[in-house]
Amino acid sequence: MRILESERILLKPIELEDLNFLLNLRWEQEVMNYLIHDPISYKNQLDWFNNIKKTDVALSVFLKEENELKIIGTIGLYEINARHQRAIWRIRLDPSQQGKGYATEAINLLLDYGFNTLNLNKIISDSFANNIAIVNLTLKLGFKQEGLLVNHYFHKGEFRDAIQFGLLRKDFNCTKK
Ligand SMILES: CC(C)(COP(=O)(O)OP(=O)(O)OC[C@H]1O[C@@H](n2cnc3c(N)ncnc32)[C@H](O)[C@@H]1OP(=O)(O)O)[C@@H](O)C(=O)NCCC(=O)NCCS
């Protein structure tokens, strides 16, 4: 796939050399609190990398600095269903780079690619109901809440609720006009 970029951000397929950074990110306390998946080892991370499906859009997020690209996270479209023209998106950014609008910039690039290049009709996400940052971000992007998934995940010794959000291509194009 081609590289996606905005003024400050560049997105490109995850490469082997990105894995150490992405693994460390998974182990950051602030990030781990909201990850639906359990922490993993480097071997798990490598296995995941080697098994990324051809249809998945698994990208590293880079900050465009003066003379170099600095990796700050990952974003992607997964579980792409060609028949139903649907995918799920996920994002994870370095805590030291949060609150600067980078997620908004990265997801807009990804949504544009998903709807206008992959021709998806719908992009969904699910996250813990108490993940205020992602809930606010998703609503700000125009996603609609589709459901509260009660006791949907078992995480850190307790069942936790999740919220499913969805955005349709026609609504994304509307917000871009
Ligand atoms: C969710 C996440 C991607 C947001 O990244 P970010 O770059 O800080 O987001 P932005 O700066 O683009 O903020 C966009 C909007 O998100 C919301 N938001 C972001 N951080 C927030 C926070 N700490 N509290 C409340 N709302 C927040 C706000 O609505 C914000 O808009 P505003 O600045 O106009 O108020 C980031 O916090 C993250 O990686 N969290 C850990 C991983 C995670 O939870 N991933 C999702 C589950 S898989």
Explain what this protein looks like in three dimensions.
This protein has 177 residues and is of the alpha+beta class. It has one domain: Gcn5-related N-acetyltransferase (GNAT) (Aminopeptidase), CATH 3.40.630.30. Helix content is 31%, strand content 37%. The chain has helices at residues 19-27, 29-32, 42-50, 102-116, 132-140, 169-176; strands at residues 4-5, 9-13, 57-64, 69-81, 86-93, 122-128, 144-155, 158-168. The chain has an eight-stranded mixed beta sheet, sandwiched between helices. Strand 4 (69-81) and strand 5 form a beta hairpin. The two termini are 26 Å apart. Coenzyme A (COA) binds at residues 31, 34, 90-93, 98-104, 127, 131-134, 136-137, 140. The site of coenzyme A (COA) has 21 residues, from strand 5, helix 4 and helix 5.
